[in-house]
Amino acid sequence: MKKQKSFVYRCSACGHEEPKWLGRCPECGEWNTLIETAISGRGGPGTGYNSGSGGGRSGSIPRSFPLSSIDPEEGSRIGSGIPELDRVLGGGIMKRSAILVGGEPGIGKSTLLLQAAAAAETKGRILYISGEESAGQIRMRADRLGLLGNSAGNGSAKGSSLGDRIEICCSGRLEDINALLESVKPVLIMVDSAQTLFTAEAGMVPGTVNQMKYCSFELISWVKEHDAALFLVAHVTKEGIISGPKTLEHMVDTVLYFEQNEGDSRFLRAAKNRFGSVDEIGIFTMGEKGLSAVEDTSLLFLVRREGDLPAGVATAAVLEGSRTLLVEIQALTVPAKGSMSRVFSDRIDSARVSRVAAALEKHLGLRLSDQDLYVNVAGGIRINEVGVELALGCAIYSARTGLPLPAGLVIAGELSLTGEIRPVRRLAGRIKTAKGLGFERFIGPEEGAEMVRDIKSAIKLIFSKK
Ligand code: TYD
Ligand code: MG
């Protein structure tokens, strides 16, 4: 076997590693950033904790196990005590996993982690590491949220021992944290934020991506070996620095992003999840007592109206993971300002909007190609589900013709290029939700709804006077 080199050239900007020195990092394109770096016992970031031999601990012999001999309970979950968070995680915090929580400053990442630390369904200790806030600030927040005492709060308080179960450390220095891990032996580690971690081992410049990757990797390795779980906060700002947290994504098991709409609801979405689906979203509002679940999410994306609907508005029943949401789709068409018509749609993929508009133009003879098309979803939620297409088509038709849809009507269905309406998943559940909320009519592609097979008959059914 070839003898391994004891060092690599690591980019101090992005953490990329090369066996040979190069003037320019092939990963991030920065010049003169490759620095000779010793390969540490763990193999360093980028080699991966599960890379088998080579990158493993020095002296350890790689082993394999018969599949049948492995304990399926290994890595079972800890409830976070926050149902919306558990939902997104796929049923709780998987032990030995690392979870990245990204989002813009002020969205509520620190609040979420502190609430989860207080509510987590474990008897073990929790280490809350903050390089962002002082211990006093954290305590004040905990008091304000009513996490420690016998407050009415959100029911997450678990008696007086709670304040002792959570250990606070306000250092981002990896050497300090490592020492604490050995003495505290936490089952849950919250790091706020990955960007404040540093160690002298990872190059001279603190605050670099390399520092963040190196330190995060060390902590991830620790939780894998000690049956614990790790939350890593990462700030993401709109302008730039997205490369920072992005480089952590492949190292962790789960990536959650926190986002906000124009209202005060906040959505927690999984961008990656080794232990669950990425379809589920968590819906929160931020209030006096921190983040709380929204009682009735099915109504969150509707606009309350008396009487008739304006033109350009249709109500869709869409699925977000296991949840049915009723959303108001709003469309507007105006004569194109340029020589080309354009689609402006943030909440529904523009390609989907263009495709639906093309199908309407072809199968209804509705002229849209000389129109600019604006589409929005009330409440600012992004919709990726195909079941929205028929309602989207109806909203566009209504906008273009000026004919409003009847009130009290909900729509679900996929619109194919041929003009046919295709079945969607769990139609019965969508109908049940809509009826439960007092909607009288439901139009969809299957029995149980007022059944429509193609866009032409759907438009006829909806827009002909009863
Ligand atoms: P924070 O969790 O600090 O956000 P992040 O860690 O993502 O930067 O808090 C976000 C905002 O929420 C902050 O501006 C204050 C506000 N907030 C409340 O409205 N109520 C509360 O109970 C708390 C703790 C914060
Ligand atoms: Mg914070």
Summarize the structure in words.
- This protein has 466 residues and is an alpha/beta fold.
- The chain is built from 11 helices and 23 strands.
- The chain has helices at residues 83-89, 109-119, 135-144, 162-165, 174-184, 209-225, 243-249, 350-364, 389-401, 427-436, 455-463; strands at 7-11, 17-18, 34-38, 77-78, 93-94, 98-103, 126-130, 166-169, 188-192, 229-235, 254-260, 265-273, 281-287, 290-293, 313-320, 323-335, 343-345, 371-377, 409-411, 414-415, 421-422, 441-444, 450-451.
- Strands 8-7-9-10-6-11-12-13-14 form a 9-stranded mixed beta sheet, with helices on both faces. A 4-stranded mixed beta sheet has the order 15-16-18-17. A 3-stranded antiparallel beta sheet has the order 2-1-3, with no helix packed on it.
- α8 packs across α9.
- The longest helix is centred in the middle third of the chain and has 17 residues, at 209-225.
- The chain is elongated.
- The termini are far apart.
Bound small molecules, which ones?
Answer: thymidine-5'-diphosphate, magnesium ion
- Roughly how many Å is the radius of gyration? 26 Å
Query: Which strands sit side by side, in order, in the main sheet?
Result: 8-7-9-10-6-11-12-13-14
Largest sheet: 9 strands, mixed
Strand content: 15-25%
- Overall, the morphology is elongated
Could you list the spans in which at least 5 consecutive residues all have pLDDT below 50? 41-58, 151-160
Oligomeric organization of the protein chains: single chain
| Helical fraction | 10-25%
* Strand element count: 23
Mean pLDDT comes to 86
Give the CA-CA distance, first to last residue: 82 Å
In DSSP terms (H or I, runs of 4 or more residues), the helix count works out at 11
Structural class: alpha/beta
